[in-house]
Design goal:
The complex is a heterodimer of chains A (about 350) and B (about 525).
Chain A (H helix, E strand, L loop, with lengths): L8 E3 L2 E4 L4 E3 L7 E3 L14 E5 L3 H8 L5 E4 L4 E4 L2 E7 L7 E7 L2 E5 L21 E6 L11 H17 L3 E5 L5 H11 L7 E3 L4 H9 L8 E2 L13 E4 L15 E6 L6 H6 L4 E3 L7 H11 L3 E7 L1 H10 L3 E4 L16
Parallel strand pairs in A: 3-4, 4-5, 5-6, 10-11, 11-18, 12-15, 12-16, 13-14, 13-15, 16-17, 18-19
Antiparallel strand pairs in A: 1-2, 2-3, 7-8, 8-9, 9-10
Chain B lengths: L1 H11 L4 H14 L2 H11 L10 H12 L3 H11 L2 H8 L11 H14 L2 H13 L3 H11 L9 H12 L3 H8 L7 H7 L16 E2 L1 E2 L4 H4 L5 E6 L3 E8 L2 E6 L10 H7 L6 E11 L2 E2 L2 H8 L6 H6 L2 E11 L2 E2 L5 H15 L6 H4 E3 L2 E2 L4 H9 L8 E6 L7 E2 L4 E5 L3 E12 L8 E10 L2 E8 L5 H13 L1 E5 L2 E4 L4 E6 L1 E4 L7 E4 L2 E5 L11 H12 L1
Parallel strand pairs in B: 1-13, 2-14, 8-10
Antiparallel strand pairs in B: 3-11, 3-12, 4-5, 4-6, 6-7, 6-8, 8-9, 12-14, 15-16, 15-19, 15-20, 16-17, 18-19, 20-23, 21-22
Helix pairs in contact in B: 1-2, 1-9, 2-10, 3-12, 4-8, 6-9, 7-8, 10-11
The chains are: A alpha/beta (about 350), B alpha+beta (about 525).
C-alpha cells in the first residue's frame, strides 16, 4: 500500500490522490471530486468542483443539480491536475461510467468504479487499461455468479411477459431507474415492436430524458400515473424502481406478476425473501468470470479490492500469486443482497 | 430431469395454491407413469436412500470449479444452500441430456449410490456436465435428500384428485403410508373402485388447529369433549391379519421400536385401527420427551432401555373397527366403540391394559371450567388440552372446526443475543440463527438457540447490526457485542449436563425484540432453574 502513497490513499472522505489533490467518489464534501458514475452511492453532493466523463453530464446534473461546478472530459483524453495526469476510460456500467486512470512519475493507477464486460447498447463498452495499481469493485466477487447472456435474459423477459398477457396479468419489472431500466428498454425496442404497451414509473422519466439528451436513442414512454383512469394494464409491461414494490402506487394494477432484474436474482434466497414471482439475472456489474478476466487483462502489480466481497476476492487473488488486499471503505454500495436505490 | 426441474421452479416461484395445483397437473399430464410416481415420491418428502454424501458433492464441486476449498466454503456459507452453491459454481455445460426424472434415477443415481467416494466424485462430475444450472440444483437436492419446495401432502393429493377425477379422500388414503415409486403403485393409486388397502395401509391423520382468539364467544363448550394433549409421538396402531403395524405421524413405520406396545397389541381383535399418542411413562406420569427420544433413536431396543424408559400407547380415537372404516361416524360414537373395544380386549387383570389404554375425556358446561383443567396440564406433564367436536367425523388432514388444541402458555425469559450464524433456505445469507444467553454470576451463559419469530424487516435490521458489531468469528459463527435483548418462549425446560448453562429448553423461539430493555435487565439463569424446580415439585 505504501508503495503507491503518492498516487492513492484511503482517507475518511474516500480515495484521495495526493499528486493531483483530488478525491474519487468522495462520501464527504471536498474541494475537487472525480465521479466515476451517476449512481447515488458514487455521486454525492456538496463538493466544490466536479470532474466526470462527458456522457455522464446530463445524469450528474439530474442527480446533483444544474448549478454544480462540473467539468467533463471525453473518454481517452487526458487532463493534468497538479502533478497527476487523469484519463477516463469507459467502464460499461451505465451511461457515462468511467474508469479513472491516474499517472504520476511513471506509475499508473486505475480505479474501475462499477463496471461490466457484457454488452450494453446504452453505453460505451469497457476497455482494459494496463496499470501498476488497480482498484476494483467486487460486488459479485463470488464464484456462484455467472451471468447468462443478455439475449437469453431478454428472451426470458419476453416469454414471461407473453405468459402474463395470456393470463391477463400486468407484468411489473423492478429495475434501477438509472442504467438497468434503459438497458432493458433498449434491448426490448431492438426486438419486435409489437410486444405490447410499455409504461414507466414516474421516477424513470428524468433519467430517460437525460439518456435521450445524451444521444441514446431510446423510445419515449409515459408514466403509468399519467394514464387515463380506466386504462387496461393487463397486457402491459411496467418498469419501476425497486422501492415501488411496497408502495400504494402498485394498487393501480389489478392482477400482477412482479419480477426484478438484478444480479442478486441468481440466488434463490434473495428472490424468495422479496416475494417476487420471477427474478431475471441481469447485472451491470462484472460476474466472477469477468472480474477475474478484467484483473488479468489490466494485469496490475498490486490489486485493491473494494465494494462487496473484498476480503474473499483479495485472498483468492493472493492465492493465485497476485499482490492483493481488501480495501475497507466506510460506504458500501451494494452489500449482500441489499441494493441501494438509484 | 428438465420437466421436473421446471415443475420445481414453477412450484417454487408462487405462493398461490391454484398455481401450484396447475403446475402439478401439467407435470402429471406430460409425464409417464414411472416419472409421475417418482415426482409424487419426492414431493411427498421421501428421500433417495442412501443419499450421496455431501463430502462427495463438495469434492467434485471444488474440482469442477477449480477453486480453492476455502473459497468454496466461504461461498457456501454466503449462499446457505449446498445444492444451489454447487449448481451455480460449476461452469455452464454444453452437452445437455434429455433424460426424464426416472431415467436419471436409474442411469445416474443408482450407479452413484453403489460406489465409493472417489468413484462418486468422478460420476458426479460427469452428471453435472449433462445438466443446466436449474436441473443441477434439483438433481443435487435429490442426491442430498432435501427437496423442499412448499407443497404438502394435501396439495399433492388435491392435484392428483383433480387430474384423475378420483375422490380426494380416497387419494389421500392411498397415498398414506410408504409410497413406493413404481408404475404398479401409480396404477393402484389411480384404480377405479373405493378400496385402498394393503394390510399395513394407515389412514391420513386428522390434525388440529390452535383455538382462535375469540373462541369463547363463537364455540359452545357443550359441543365438545376435552382431553389431555400429550407431548409424545402421535401414532396410528393397526391390527390386521393378526399383524401389528405402528405408523408415526410422519408416516414412517415404527416396527421394532416399541416391542411392548406391539406385544400388547397382539391382544387386539383383527380389523382395528387406533389413533393415539406414544409416551414414555412411569408410575402415574409421563417421562420427559427427551427420555422418549432415547427410544426413537434406536431401531431395536435393549431390555435395559425398555426398563429405563417404559412406554405406553394412549388411544384417543378408533378409525376402523371389525375391518370397517368408521371415520365418518361422529366422534361421540367412535369414543363409545373405543371404550368398549379396550374394555373387551383388555380386561382389568393384565398388565397390558396399561400399555394400551384410553385417553380420558371430560365435558364441561363453561369454558372457564375447562380453563381450570388446562391450567393443571403442567402438573400432569401434558402440553394442554385438546377440544374435539362430539359430532365431527374423523377428518383428513388439518380441517378447521373438528379438533382444536389449547396449549399452555409457554415459559418466557428475556435473553441476550451473543452469537449469530447465517440462516438457510429463504433466509440464506442473512444472519438469522441466534444463540441467546442469560446472566449467571455476572457472566452471560448461552442457554438457547432460536431462529424464528422475527419479521423480515426486523431480521434485516438485526442482520445489518450483526455485520457491523462482530467481535470475533469462529468459522461461520459470529460473536457479537451483547446489545439485543429478546423475549424467548419455550415449552419446557430440563436439567442437562450437555449444555453449558445446565439446562435444556424445548422449542425455543423468539417472541419479540425487547427494545425497552438493556442487557442488564435480561433474566438470570437462577430464575430459569427456579422454573425447573417448580415444574418438578
Amino acid at each position: 500500500m505504501a508503495r503507491f502513497q503518492h498516487l492513492l490513499q484511503v482517507t475518511p472522505a474516500g480515495l484521495y490522490c495526493p499528486a493531483g489533490d483530488f478525491y474519487i467518489d468522495p462520501w464527504r464534501s471536498v474541494n475537487r471530486a472525480i465521479i466515476t458514475h451517476a449512481h447515488s452511492d458514487h455521486a454525492r453532493s456538496g463538493s466544490a468542483h466536479y470532474l466526470a466523463a462527458d456522457p455522464s453530464k446530463s445524469l450528474l446534473q439530474l442527480r446533483l443539480g444544474m448549478d454544480i461546478d462540473l467539468q467533463t472530459l471525453p473518454y481517452g483524453e487526458s487532463l493534468t491536475l497538479g502533478e497527476a495526469v487523469v484519463t477516463f476510460f469507459p467502464a460499461g456500467h451505465i451511461l457515462g461510467a468511467a474508469q479513472i486512470r491516474i499517472e504520476h512519475r511513471g506509475q499508473i493507477a486505475l480505479i474501475t468504479g462499477d463496471y461490466k464486460l457484457q454488452t450494453d447498447a446504452t453505453c460505451t463498452p469497457w476497455e482494459p487499461v494496463a496499470c501498476h495499481l488497480m482498484v476494483t469493485e467486487s460486488t459479485f466477487g463470488l464464484p456462484v455468479f455467472h451471468w447468462p447472456s443478455t439475449a437469453q435474459i431478454i428472451d426470458e423477459v419476453i416469454l414471461w411477459w407473453q405468459e402474463n398477457q395470456h393470463a391477463k396479468r400486468t407484468s411489473v419489472v423492478f429495475a434501477y431507474s438509472v442504467g438497468k431500466a434503459q438497458r432493458i428498454l433498449m434491448e426490448l425496442s431492438q426486438r419486435s415492436s409489437g410486444l405490447g404497451p410499455v409504461w414507466l414509473h414516474g421516477a424513470m422519466l428524468g433519467p430517460m430524458r437525460a439518456y435521450r439528451d445524451s444521444g441514446v436513442k431510446l423510445p419515449e414512454y409515459e408514466s403509468a400515473s399519467s394514464a387515463p383512469s380506466g386504462t387496461d394494464f393487463s397486457s402491459a409491461l411496467i418498469i419501476a424502481p425497486p422501492s415501488a414494490q411496497q408502495s400504494p402506487w402498485m394498487n393501480r394494477f389489478k392482477e400482477v406478476s412482479v419480477a426484478s432484474a438484478s444480479g442478486w436474482m441468481a440466488i434463490r434466497g434473495t428472490r424468495r425473501r422479496r416475494n417476487l414471482d420471477r427474478g431475471f439475472v441481469l447485472s451491470d456489474h462484472v460476474d466472477w468470470g469477468d472480474l477475474n478476466r478484467a484483473v488479468d487483462l489490466c494485469n496490475p502489480e498490486e490489486l485493491w479490492v473494494t465494494h462487496g466481497f473484498s476480503e474473499t476476492f483479495a485472498r483468492y487473488q493472493n492465492e493465485k500469486g497476485r499482490n492483493a488486499l481488501p480495501l475497507k471503505t466506510e460506504f458500501q454500495g451494494e452489500v449482500d443482497g441489499e441494493e441501494v436505490q438509484a | 430431469m428438465k420437466a421436473f426441474a421446471e415443475l420445481y421452479q414453477r412450484l417454487d416461484s408462487t405462493t398461490k395454491t391454484t398455481a401450484k395445483v396447475d403446475a402439478l397437473i401439467a407435470y402429471l399430464e406430460s409425464a409417464n407413469a414411472l416419472d409421475q410416481a417418482w415426482a409424487i415420491y419426492f414431493l411427498l418428502g421421501n428421500k433417495l436412500k442412501p443419499s450421496v454424501p455431501t463430502k462427495a458433492l463438495r469434492t467434485a464441486a471444488i474440482e469442477a470449479a477449480q477453486i480453492p476449498e476455502r473459497l468454496f466454503e466461504e461461498t457456501y456459507q454466503w449462499v446457505g444452500d449446498l445444492a444451489e452453491t454447487i449448481a451455480n459454481i460449476i461452469p455452464a455445460s454444453r452437452r445437455l441430456e434429455h433424460g426424464s426424472l426416472s431415467e436419471w434415477i436409474e442411469l445416474y443415481y443408482q450407479p452413484l449410490s453403489r460406489v465409493e467416494l472417489a468413484e462418486q466424485v468422478k460420476l458426479l462430475l460427469d452428471c453435472w456436465q449433462r445438466l443446466d444450472a436449474q436441473q443441477r440444483f434439483v438433481f443435487n437436492k435429490l442426491l442430498t435428500g432435501n427437496l423442499r419446495v412448499g407443497v404438502n401432502a394435501r396439495l399433492i393429493t388435491k392435484a392428483i384428485a383433480e387430474w384423475s377425477s378420483i375422490d380426494v379422500d380416497l387419494i389421500a388414503h392411498r397415498l398414506t403410508g410408504q409410497w413406493r415409486p413404481t408404475t404398479e403403485a401409480m396404477s393402484q393409486l389411480l384404480e377405479k373402485g373405493s378400496e385402498a388397502k394393503s394390510p399395513s395401509q394407515p389412514y391420513p391423520f386428522c390434525l388440529a388447529h390452535s383455538l382462535p382468539a375469540n373462541f369463547e364467544a363463537t364455540l359452545d363448550p357443550q359441543d365438545f369433549y376435552a382431553e389431555w394433549k400429550w407431548d409424545g409421538i402421535r401414532a396410528q396402531l393397526i391390527r390386521r391379519n393378526a399383524t401389528t403395524f405402528i405408523w408415526s405421524r410422519g408416516e414412517e413405520l415404527l416396527a421394532g421400536r416399541f416391542p411392548e406396545i406391539e406385544s400388547a397389541a397382539a391382544g387386539l381383535e383383527d380389523g382395528v385401527v387406533l389413533d393415539g399418542e406414544i409416551l414414555a411413562w412411569r408410575d402415574k406420569a409421563p417421562l420427559p420427551f427427551s427420555e422418549l427420544q432415547r427410544r426413537i433413536q434406536r431401531k431395536s431396543v435393549s431390555k435395559k432401555l425398555m426398563q429405563e424408559v417404559p412406554v405406553r400407547f394412549i388411544a384417543f380415537d378408533v378409525l376402523e373397527h371389525q375391518a370397517v372404516d368408521i371415520r365418518s361416524l361422529a366422534f361421540e360414537q367412535r369414543r363409545a366403540v373405543l371404550e368398549a373395544l379396550i374394555a373387551k380386549n383388555y380386561p382389568e387383570s393384565a398388565e397390558v391394559s396399561q400399555t394400551i389404554c384410553v385417553n380420558q375425556t371430560r365435558t364441561a358446561a363453561t369454558w372457564s371450567e375447562l380453563a381450570l383443567q388446562r391450567d393443571q396440564a403442567r402438573e400432569v406433564r401434558a402440553e394442554g388440552v385438546m377440544i374435539k367436536r362430539k359430532d365431527s367425523r374423523y377428518e383428513t388432514g388439518r380441517v378447521t372446526g373438528a379438533w382444536w388444541k389449547w396449549k399452555l402458555d409457554p415459559f418466557t425469559v428475556d435473553a441476550v443475543l451473543i452469537y449469530a450464524q447465517r440462516g438457510h433456505g429463504r433466509r440464506a445469507s442473512l444472519y438469522t440463527d441466534y444463540t441467546f444467553a442469560v446472566w449467571s454470576d455476572g457472566v452471560l451463559v448461552p442457554f438457547a438457540k432460536a431462529y424464528s419469530g422475527l419479521t423480515d424487516d426486523e431480521i434485516r435490521v438485526v442482520d445489518r447490526w450483526i455485520r457491523a458489531n462482530t467481535l470475533q468469528k469462529f468459522g461461520p459463527v459470529h460473536e457479537v457485542k451483547p446489545h439485543w435483548v429478546m423475549e424467548i418462549a419455550f415449552e419446557n425446560v430440563q436439567l442437562s449436563t450437555r449444555h453449558k448453562s445446565g439446562v435444556a429448553v424445548r422449542f425455543p423461539r423468539i417472541v419479540r425484540i425487547r427494545d425497552d430493555k438493556k442487557i442488564e435487565d435480561a433474566d438470570r439463569l437462577q430464575s430459569i432453574l427456579e422454573l425447573v424446580a417448580a415444574r418438578q415439585g
